[in-house]
Amino acid sequence: MTDLTKPDNPDSRCGFVAIIGRPNVGKSTLLNHILGQKLSITSRKPQTTRHQVLGIKTEGDVQAIYVDTPGMHEEEPRALNRYMNRAASSALKGVDVVVFVVDQGHWTTADEMVLSKLEHVTAPVILVINKVDKLERRDALLPHLESVARKRNFEEIIPLSALKEQNLEPLENAVNRLLPVSIHFYPDDQITDRTQRFLASEIVREKITRQLGAELPYSVAVEIEEFKHSGKSLHISAVILVERSGQKKIIIGDKGDRIRQIGHDARIDMEKLFDSKVMLRLWVKVKKGWADSDRALKSLGMNDF
Fold first, then answer.
1. How would you class 131 by CB atoms within 10 Å of its CB: exposed for 0-12, middle for 13-18, buried for 19 or more?
2. Which of 154, 188, 219, 221 is least enclosed by beta carbons within 10 angstroms?
3. 156: exposed, middle or buried (C-beta count within 10 Å: 0-12, 13-18, 19+)?
4. For 196-299, which CATH class?
């Protein structure tokens, strides 16, 4: 039987790379800087990422397909939390390399929980110690490296700063070296498997998260109701879903100032990403209990697993 993944070029490599870790360790920031452009949304608020997002980087003979995942968390009090944990865990199935991201500060029980998920993973695991730019004393890193090295036989342990783009090249070199010989699965100019509608909804949600910080719980979702080209402009209409009327008032703000700022910031990012003038319209709608309902999550497209 012919192996359809076997390339004519023996130097051609391609494979899937899962980026995993507890919330807020910098997984999405790492993916964005590896790709050299913004794909996954980021904020200082943990659990910003909710979905698997593929980031495809093709350089010459090598195509690395990175899978950004939601942060794995220890408790699953709501249907939304359970969905995010499933999204993260399912990314480990059939991948060729795992990049396990932790913070330079200290090893936590949440890190230990993520490590336990790797117990039966046979793919090589690279441990990334992120945010080393925040270290006050560089000599404090060595004992931490020695400590984590005893937790598993990691393929490599690489300290870096995703945000400052420090030491990313050794990570990419290690990943590329571990990818199997294969044809490329995607066109060389493709950077993600996600649609423009999905990316637009994520950009709006990022701006809400960044604007509101601790004011608003995680119970915010965004649905794109219109996404169409008209002349030289892209017309996008999005509905922001919240669970309570009080949350709606927070997002709208005094005389609509907050939602206007969210729309302004989102539109700027969309125009960069889609390389088009964007006409963006936002509405806020109350949908009670959506984050606790598996049925509601499916209606919002969170049924990948």
1. buried
2. 188
3. middle
4. alpha beta
Query: pLDDT by residue for the chain (305 residues), tens digit each?
Result: 445 566 778 889 999 999 999 888 889 899 999 998 877 766 555 455 555 688 999 999 999 999 887 666 555 555 555 655 565 556 678 899 999 999 987 889 989 989 998 888 899 999 999 999 988 777 778 888 888 999 999 999 999 999 999 999 999 999 999 999 999 999 999 999 888 998 999 899 889 988 886 666 567 888 899 999 988 899 999 999 888 888 899 999 999 999 999 999 999 999 998 999 999 999 999 887 666 655 555 555 555 54
Q: Which residues pair with 101 in a beta bridge?
A: 128
Query: Which residues have CB under 8 Å from 166's CB, separation 6+?
Result: 132, 133, 160
How far lies 109's CA from each of 21, 75, 114, in Å?
12, 12, 9
Q: Check if the beta carbon of residue 141 is closer than 8 Å to that of residue 135.
A: yes
Please tell me the distance from the alpha carbon of residue 153 to that of residue 126, in angstroms, as a whole number: 9
CATH of 13-178, one of 3.90.1300.10, 3.40.50.1100, 3.40.50.300, 3.40.50.2300: 3.40.50.300
In Å, how far are 61, 78, 298 from 290, measured between CA atoms? 45, 10, 10
Domain ranges of the chain: 13-178, 196-299
For 242, the token pair is: 């919240």
Tokens representing 78 are 């709501």
Q: Could you give the 3-state DSSP secondary structure of residue 228?
A: strand
- Residues 13 and 31: their CA atoms lie apart, in Å, by 19
Q: Tokens 């100032």 — which residue?
A: 257
pTM of full prediction above 0.70: yes
The structure tokens listed for 141 are 């890193």
